[in-house]
Each structure stands twice: as structure tokens, then as C-alpha cells.
Amino acid sequence: QVQFVESGGGLVQPGGSLRLSCAASGSIFSILVMGWYRQAPGKQRELVARVNNVGTTNYGESVKGRFTVYRDNAKRTVYLQMNSLKPEDTAVYYCNMGGSSWSSWGQGTQVTVSS
Description:
The protein is mainly beta. The protein has strands spanning 4-7, 10-12, 18-24, 33-39, 46-52, 57-59, 67-72, 77-82, 91-97, 109-113. Strands 2-10-9-4-5-6 form a 6-stranded mixed beta sheet, with no helix packed on it. A hairpin with a 4-residue loop joins strand 5 and strand 6 (57-59). 0% of the residues lie in helices and 48% in strands.
């Protein structure tokens, strides 16, 4: 089973940027869709962005136009570039398969947007 390790989170001011990385323990070449998810305290986990193996992307309405997801299969890594960050983006961010089935969830990486 492929496992994922997220990194790149931190504390940023509103309007700032971060790039998150998701490193896979195995090949992601055969995984059709990869996704980024986030979970804020007291809230359900939500889908943030997805990218398939030909580069087609989907974004949640709240992040559309601000976030960009892309993947590098050779590096076994999926990225999430986050710009124009808002306090409501504060959450733990996770990566996983983006379809109907998921692998085990990693520890995630904390993103905190605050002045």
C-alpha cells in the first residue's frame, strides 16, 4: 500500500504563499487521481484539489484561482501551491488518492494563516 508524507506547512500572514509537498513511498504512476484534502478543528475533512495523470485538475470553490495542484510522477511527489492565503485556509492538509478509494492517511502538515 502506498503511503504519503506531507510537508511544507507553516505559519504565514494573510496574503502569503506556501507550497506543500506530498511524497509517496511508492510509484504514483498508476494512481489515476491524486488529491489534497484539509481538515480544520471541529470540521469534516474536505477536498481541496485533485489532479489526474494527464494534468486535468479540479478545485474546491473556496480555493479556485488561488491554489494550483500538480504532480511529478518521476519524483513520486504531488504539490499544492497556495497563494493569497486566507485565515479560513487554516487546517491540517493531507494528500491521498483522489478517487473513491483512499490509502491510509498520513500525519498531514499544519497550515496556519494569521496576522
